[in-house]
Design brief:
Keywords: ATP-binding, Cytoplasm, Gas vesicle, Hydrolase, Nucleotide-binding. There is one protein chain. It is built from 13 helices and 10 strands. By secondary structure, the chain is an alpha/beta fold. It starts with a helix and ends with a helix.
């Protein structure tokens, strides 16, 4: 019993260390973000009448996922993405959930060395959420004295406009990373057509010459979407699909998955190998019923740090994987069936 207690304390220290490392990484990112925002804000606002123009710009260092594993398979995918961006083509990453599309998109954007702008798609996204909108009004007064004893008092009200991610990226020549792109309504994306094809971005809420932005020649876009059979996913309009190239992101080879799990956990090499082996077996067993991504392997490995013995016996591993995948099934009977199929797959 005493030995088991010591083991639990060791695992507890590992978890605390992992959290401390994450907190330090996030603190560094916030520091870089504040510095980048200050620098880009002063540069952008000097010649612009818009308020908040630089909001959302990240430096490449801040945008880069941490940790990010680079194996031969990942490098080959990254080269395809950056290659298409070098050819001035918007890239659409498509694949199952948990396959690592977002990390790939951010890494490829950071590799360009240009600022990065992020947006996450959902049902509430509309054109204004992409290009910007009026955000109240600015009121100020002018008090002029033309001649002695004669004063002119003028109150001026000016509408305040705030650019949103697409406008910021198009104007600054940044890389737009549009995550979960297909979860936003297709009507919101009509503004992308002219931006991708003619290099002109329409801002419907603006008037006169400020209604359009000439898209910066270094502007690029990387979109990520789950495959169309997922709930809550819209099919983009064909006109937009014609203006993008699609790169399919499937599940990685076993070596790459081991490297990714190792980068995200403190588990020893032998148990990482067992977790990945088991996750891949369960993926094959549940194919077509439940999606078992690399993210599931990472979560299972973290579970073993807390619940597993040093041997990571099959029963404990089956329990952990059942907990990880339980949110994807409905009902007690389905959960029992899931546990049985997992146990059978990893035996």
């Amino acid at each position: 019993m005493a030995d088991g207690s010591r083991e639990r304390k060791v695992r507890g220290r590992k978890i605390a260390t992992d959290r401390e490392q994450k907190e330090r990484r996030w603190a560094k990112k916030r520091l870089r973000s504040n510095g980048a925002a200050d620098a880009s804000g002063s540069a952008s606002s000097a010649g612009s009448g818009d308020a908040g123009d630089a909001d959302g710009l990240m430096s490449p260092e801040e945008a880069a996922p941490d940790p990010f594993v680079r194996t031969d398979e990942i490098e080959a995918l990254s080269d395809r993405i950056t290659g298409w961006m070098a050819a001035d083509q918007p890239v659409h990453l498509i694949g199952p959930t948990g396959a690592g599309k977002t990390a790939l998109a951010l890494a490829a954007a950071a590799d360009r060395g240009r600022p990065v702008v992020w947006i996450n798609g959902d049902e509430a996204v509309d054109t204004a959420a992409l290009v910007g909108a009026h955000a109240g009004a600015e009121r100020y007064e002018e008090d002029d004295q033309y001649v002695s004893g004669v004063r002119k008092h003028t109150e001026i009200v000016r509408e305040r406009w705030v650019d949103n991610p697409l406008s910021v990226a198009a104007r600054e020549g940044a890389t737009l990373v549009y995550n979960e792109f297909s979860r936003s309504p297709p009507a919101a994306h009509n503004v992308l057509l002219s931006a991708f094809e003619e290099g002109i971005l329409e801002r419907p809420g603006k008037r006169g010459s400020e209604r359009t932005i000439d898209v910066h020649p270094e502007f690029r876009a990387v979109l990520t979407s789950n495959t169309i059979e997922y709930a809550g996913v819209h099919r983009p309009q064909d006109a937009l699909l014609d203006r993008t190239v699609g790169v399919h992101v499937g599940f990685y080879d076993e070596e790459t998955e081991r490297e990714i799990v190792a980068a995200h956990t403190d588990l020893d090499e032998e148990r990482i190998e067992r977790v990945v082996e088991a996750t891949r077996a369960v993926r094959e067993e549940l194919d077509g019923d439940v999606v078992v991504g690399t993210r599931a392997a990472i979560t299972a490995a973290r579970g073993l740090v807390v619940f597993g013995s040093d041997d990571a016996d099959d029963a404990t591993l089956a329990d952990v994987l059942a907990d990880v995948l339980a949110p994807k099934v409905a009902g007690e009977d389905d959960l029992r069936g899931l546990r049985d199929r997992i146990e059978s797959a990893i035996a």
